[in-house]
């Protein structure tokens, strides 16, 4: 009996010893990122420092994040992606600088006045307002209206009390120092005139199409701006003279929209 028990114990022991040990299944797949320690200054667990050295005190087990390599399909898509095209440079234009000699009775040493026109190229709106026609309502595109070209109160009272310098594009003339008007007020009057199709019984037409920058269209725009400017009070003929807006006059003459600035002469 004891011999049989001994044989049974030996048989069970042999079965346990021969059973394969199944390793623990890893929960890290090939597509997941892996944290590894790549810093040689920070010893990994179970590594002892070299003799005669002091272990570095740093962030313990500071991990480095390794991203999985992109698949062949992702690499092909990245390689075939087109690079953004560079913006085309804007064309440049040079306009003449106008020098106006000082008047004969100017004090000695007075320098010439200067009118420096610069091309007006507003950036196109991604969705410009629709064109306006007589009797239509809509928002006026202010980019189509150049600056006046005269700074208010230029040479105030220099030649006559209450008068300042204006510019016709060829000569200096006196204008009221209240001119040119406030730009926001002018744009509001112009917007109303375009919607009504007239201003102080004068017909008004203005294309609000920013893509149309032809000389003929710009001249019609300038006509509308000058009508409103010279009767901006709402009474026919009561407003600011055309010399308070030389940019409007130049636009009417040449059909080119510019933003020039008249600078009165001073000591040379």
UniProtKB/TrEMBL annotation:
Residues 99-110, 119-132 have a biased composition (Pro residues). The keyword Signal applies. Residues 23-162 are annotated as: Disordered. Coiled coil: none annotated. Residues 1-18 form the signal peptide. Residues 45-59, 152-162 have a biased composition (Polar residues). It comes from the Eukaryota. Residues 72-98 have a biased composition (Low complexity). The keyword Signal applies. This is Uncharacterized protein.
